[in-house]
User: Which sequence fits this backbone?
């Protein structure tokens, strides 16, 4: 079924006595799980904004919303997603289920930006989880792979949308730990990744996005909503080799 609201999930779980399979954006690396005689929940229709508080830099969304959709809502307010994985076409609920991480320097996994979660358990009860209310269940559900219930809403901390400058340079593998401590662990660093390439894997390409007040060289605020992910990856590789650019946080 394709629920559009929490009450529909409640009704479905209350009537179901067997296994439950949950689908978000359906990009799971291991494929989608489909059990025989199970209740299959396709969460993609639960993609609405519940509320967005720009002053507090917080937003609450239905779990089927994609990160790209949340970015489109936050960007006009000068805000951005605080933590997410590299690609924005994953669902928020799916990301919460495996507690993803991105390239954010010093921010850790997604849980650090998750303020609260609405969960429907196997009995059909609607539970609000945060760091004070149902604390143990909150930390079990974030990263729990959907094993404890269906996440229907997520409240997230947002961040300021700042200009960042991209710098890429090759670093000898043995020198990378010192390079990271001296050049990357800085309050100005926002994103970082280091890519190893075949065949020797001994010279990572270190790519760092740092806060900058320099004029933009890429005026696009958001990538095309329907951009092909494989093309995006190919362009990223080319950009890394070509050198740095300026862009807004994505």
Assistant:
């Amino acid at each position: 079924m394709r629920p559009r609201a929490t009450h529909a999930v409640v009704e479905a779980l209350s009537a179901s006595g067997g296994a439950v399979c949950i689908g978000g954006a359906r990009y799971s690396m291991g494929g989608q799980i489909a059990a025989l005689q199970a209740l299959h929940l396709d969460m993609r229709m639960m993609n609405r904004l519940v509320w967005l508080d720009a002053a507090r830099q917080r937003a609450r969304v239905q779990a089927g919303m994609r990160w790209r959709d949340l970015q489109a809502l936050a960007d006009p307010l000068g805000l951005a997603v605080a933590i997410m994985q590299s690609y924005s076409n994953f669902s928020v609920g799916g990301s919460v289920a495996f507690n993803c991480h991105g390239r954010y320097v010093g921010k850790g996994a997604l849980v650090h930006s998750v303020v609260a979660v609405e969960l429907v358990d196997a009995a059909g009860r609607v539970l609000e989880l945060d760091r004070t209310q149902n604390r143990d269940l909150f930390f079990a559900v974030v990263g729990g792979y959907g094993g404890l219930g269906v996440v229907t809403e997520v409240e997230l901390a947002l961040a300021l949308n700042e200009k960042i400058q991209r710098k890429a340079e090759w670093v000898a593998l043995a020198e990378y730990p010192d390079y990271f401590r001296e050049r990357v662990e800085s309050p100005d660093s926002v994103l970082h990744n280091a890519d190893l390439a075949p065949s020797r894997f001994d010279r990572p390409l270190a790519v760092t996005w740092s806060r900058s007040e320099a004029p933009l060289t890429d005026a696009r605020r958001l990538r095309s909503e329907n951009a092909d992910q494989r093309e995006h990856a190919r362009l990223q590789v080319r950009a890394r080799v070509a050198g740095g650019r300026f862009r807004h946080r994505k």
